Amino acid sequence: MEKISVVILNWKRPENTVKIVSSLRANELVDDIVIWNDNPSAKILFPEPINKVKIIESNYNFGLYDRWYAALLAENDAVFIQDDDLILSGKAIKTLFDEWKKDPEVIHGIWGNMPQPWDLRYYGSKTDLSEAETVLTRALVFHKKYIYEILKKAYTAGDYLKNTIKKNGEDIFMSYVVMSIAGRRNKIHDLCDEVEELPCPYAISSDSENHLEVRTNVLRACRKEFHIRFSMKERMLIVLYRIAAYLKRAHPALHSRIKK
């Protein structure tokens, strides 16, 4: 029977990590949990001896690259990455795993982003998508074989991407790596009702005033880096958007009548 490896990063929320691991250990599909802790002051203390859990105490903070280093230690092909601010129900984990087994060439997650072709901005995550270019690492399943390619691309990318994704946008980067190899978009599954939110102080988005702007820049850089092309439909939307923008600027009265 195929099993799942789970990867969790711990920084400043060890209490959450203990709760998450307790839930995961009760799941028969999970037989391998890798916790990467790069904060010596936030020790993870379990109330009892634990099995099937590897804790990596790192003296060096590699930033968000830690997710990928931890995934290298996964024992299974199916790698489930999740943040330390949520607990997924057994149903959610099983659904993601089952969908991954049907199509292991793409990433499967719960939160995604699909940029509009006319401005390519990152406006935040959505759950009402069937497919997406970006899958957020809040909770996703992907094939371990992609880790080596993700790391290789990260270290050979331009300086902006290489340095920025250590702090923000690593999920965007890995999503585009997988999409560029698979030749199609990743998949989103409607499982929000199966998520228990945990306290999340010290979140990256709350620490950065320009969080969405950085993610927009990473998104655009990834599309350029991996030569992501627009479909014919998307190109038509861009043309229509530019025509509408021109009319609004040059002929506001005409634009108003057309809009009505």
Strand-residue proportion: 15-25%
CATH structural architecture of the largest domain: Alpha-Beta Complex
Fill in the CATH topology of the largest domain: Spore Coat Polysaccharide Biosynthesis Protein SpsA, Chain A
CATH class type of the largest domain:
Alpha Beta
* Count of distinct strands: 12
Q: What is the CATH superfamily classification of the largest domain?
A: Spore Coat Polysaccharide Biosynthesis Protein SpsA, Chain A
Shape: globular
As a percent range, the share of helical residues equals 40-55%
List the secondary-structure elements in sequence, H or E: EHEEHEEHEEEEEHHHEEHHHH
Poorly predicted sequence stretches spanning 5 or more consecutive residues: none
List keywords for this structure.
single chain; 260 residues; alpha/beta; Spore Coat Polysaccharide Biosynthesis Protein SpsA, Chain A; 2 domains; eight-stranded mixed sheet; two-stranded antiparallel sheet; 10 helices
How would you describe this protein?
By secondary structure, this protein is α/β, with parallel strands linked by helices. It contains ten helices and twelve strands. It folds into two domains: 4-229, Alpha-Beta Complex (Spore Coat Polysaccharide Biosynthesis Protein SpsA, Chain A), CATH 3.90.550.10; 232-260. The chain has helices at residues 14-25, 66-71, 90-102, 146-156, 159-164, 170-182, 204-207, 211-225, 232-250, 252-259; strands at residues 4-10, 30-37, 53-57, 78-82, 86-88, 108-109, 112-113, 131-132, 134-135, 139-143, 186-188, 195-197. The strands form three sheets. Strands 3-2-1-4-10-6-11-8 form an eight-stranded mixed sheet. Strand 1 (4-10), helix 1 (14-25) and strand 2 form a beta-alpha-beta unit. Helix 4 packs across helix 6, helix 6 (170-182) runs parallel beside helix 8 (211-225) and helix 9 (232-250) packs across helix 10. The longest helix has 19 residues, at 232-250. The protein is globular and about 70 Å long. The model has no long low-confidence stretch (mean pLDDT 90).
